Amino acid sequence: MRCGWHPSSSGPEIAKKLTNKVGKNAGKSPSVASLYRALAEAEEAAADDGLPLRPKPVRIRRAGEPLTAEEIDLRERLQAQPHPNTEIQ
What we know:
This protein is 42% helix and 0% strand.
């Protein structure tokens, strides 16, 4: 299936934008039930991987607010990583 969706789209709107690539219904849009079944299967598979299903919500800090211990740790880990565009010498 090919997807062109927006986070505020509903299931039926998303299903209309998808196209089955193979099988007896190739070239047609899947049913809404098929879409929800596929999403449920994907979430179940992701849960088996031990990965989070959805991004963690964050709070936007105001200027001058101190960083939490988790934010400090994340900043240090990100700054320690090499920049992806740097060339290895």
